[in-house]
Amino acid sequence: MILIATDGSAPARAAEALGLELARARGTTAGFVCVWAPLRGSFGMPLPEMLDPEFLDAERTWAEETLAAAAGRAAAAGLEAETIIAKGPAVQGVCDTAKRRRAGMVVIGSHGWGAMMSLIFGSTTLGVLQHAPCPVVVVRDHPAGSAEAPA
Amino acid sequence: MFGTIVLAVDGSRPSDRALDYAGRLAKESGSRIVAIHVKEIMAGRAAGPVHVDEDQILEKVRGQIKQLSDDGIKAELQVTSTMTGGPAHVIADVAAKESADVIVTGTRGHTALAGVFLGSVAQRLLHLAGCPVLVVPDTAAGGDAAAASREAAAVS
User: Fold this and answer.
1) What predicted TM-score, i.e. pTM, was given to this entire model?
2) Which of B47, B112, B126, B138 is a plausible cystine mate for B14, CB 3.0–4.6 Å?
């Protein structure tokens, strides 16, 4: 499986496009993984799920919608992709999924929603590079019209 | 799917893993490999190669590229020199010039620093590259990932 980590950001969409092409070219399945985490309150304390169930739902719903949108884009391109939702810290979510599904490759954007100008690359990407059980392809988001922009 | 693969090589073990993986990719996709070895030069009066065994490194990588060719892969080696700190720029430039579809690299090279996961060149490369960068982990499992994925695909 080619595992494509997505959070709906522009670099993630560039990664999606490449990941799908790779899966098609190699005749393997493509899977999208989106990791969500329960909203944290002050000092990183988890909000009690019983008190604030709607916060939990909002986070999980975001991940489900992100995955549905990615699957929709794949279907529009005539490609099938599995969607995998994972809970917890982003790096762990991606790497554990890669291990569990025996992914041959992880494809991920260089950044997520963080400011591109201030970071050399995203912290999740760096973490995934460090812990992934397989090769990782890092995809940058390029301005439209550049040679590397996804089709 | 990757028409042109630019492969960063320096004779280190992580580089060997990256080379193995790139070779497998190339065989599968009929890609051409442009391997690039950047000799780092120390500036100053006693200017010379950063690595004492630079000649051996060169011989090793030449042998590795020849082996790829013997294996039926279109592979060539480009060797250039640069001041310390410059390799990533050189690799990114070559990738742009060769219209690379991907740059394949190991996680680190010959650094003696323990606990460094991603070496300075790999880090800079991820920042400078104009195309996707494929980082091959420095584990035996990383090398077998392609086989594992084929196995997994066959079973599922």
Assistant:
1) 0.82
2) B138
